[in-house]
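Let's practice the habit of predicting before peeking. Look at the sequence and jot down your guess about where helices and strands might fall. Then scroll down.
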Amino acid sequence: MKMLQLPTIALEARIKEEIEANPALDEGKEEREDEYGDLDDDQGDDLSDAEQEFDFSDYMDDDGTPSYKYEANNYSSDDEERTLPIGTVSTFHDRLLSQLSLRSLSDKHSSIAEHLVGSLDDSGYLRREVSAIVDDLAFTQGLMTSEEEIVHLLSTQIQDLDPPGIGARDLRECLLIQMRRKTMTVPVKTATIVLDKFYDEFVKKHYSKILHRLEISEDDLKDAIEEITQLNPKPGNSMNESSRPVEQIIPDFTLVNEGDEIQVLLNGRNAPELKVSKKYSEMMQEFSSIKGKPTKSQREAILFVKQKLDGARWFIDAIRQRQNTLITTMQAIVEYQKAYFLTGDETKLRPMILKDIAEKINMDISTVSRVSNSKYVQTSYGTFSLKYFFSESLTTDDGEEVSTREVKKILQELIETENKKKPWTDENLAKELKGKGYNIARRTVAKYREQLDIPVARLRKEL
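Done guessing? Here is the structure:
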């Protein structure tokens, strides 16, 4: 089960780990003739590094001390090993401090500025009260300062760092800092006035009030809003994102459309060729030819080799079972959602839950859940997580069961084609959906809209 839930990259690491830990396991095609994996003679005599390092005499030292005396195991066999990668990239705060180090500041001002940088959150905002920072500096560093001095350093030093917007105490100040860094054109000047004088009206999209107070045209306000929408509301995150390693998705399956048929291909990394080491198989054969009762040293050596061989056999079988389960489950999903995979039309996705596939392949729901978790499939229409194809059902006025994903798709299309000057409310959207045969309540529309990350009608309004 643990092997089954591993994504492709994690499986590769798990195989390498097992090969390093078990010298009886080797890469390559397995060919066996008897219980212990006697290989064909034409396989060659090349030995892996692990086999060459193995010295059988190491296991023949009969000092009477059982091996378990040297080991300590504080974990259950069911516990998952988790290793944390160690990052080496510089942090967002480190880069701000490096910019500060290039400035000519007194020791006192330098200490205050460094404290201010350390007080910024990951988005680049200073969320703490200035009075609290004055107290912190006095108690932790013995620096006596004032709120005026801190505000002065904040505006002249911290807020002057890159990226623009760093050191703001709220969103309005953050946008204004960025706007003042721009070349002062007419739209930029208008946008600056809107943010400075009419911020509340702008947030609530009361554009008529802004037009009346500034005595400008709709086109002028559109240009100003365009300038504002280009600003970054979280300047600190932009630095964090740039230092974050790119996560590449490796699809576990590839679907190939061949007319009306769909071929399911498993990524080769999920089905590696593994075999039992020829050297260890021969060792077991040699032990089996021992005449008489084996000595204690020989028994321990036999037990060790047998454990390694059994472990290698088990691991190869686990990989094979994993491969078969993945293929079987994916083929069932493809058959169930064939109309979608042939056309790519999201509205043709049928309602499907884990139980549907589990019954189809005669497996437990937990098995299907492990397969769909962290697995991806590459199709002609993009690469998707397997979870994407699972959704609840909804009954139309005609009594037909449709996927909730289909309803969300139609809802999204309705919102995209609405009149942005008078966007539809959730109640209007519910009526439109009812006219198309989807009888759902207003609160359900609101829930689907939030899941699609679409704001309310008032915030969708445009000039």
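How did you do? The first strand starts at residue 25 and ends at 27.
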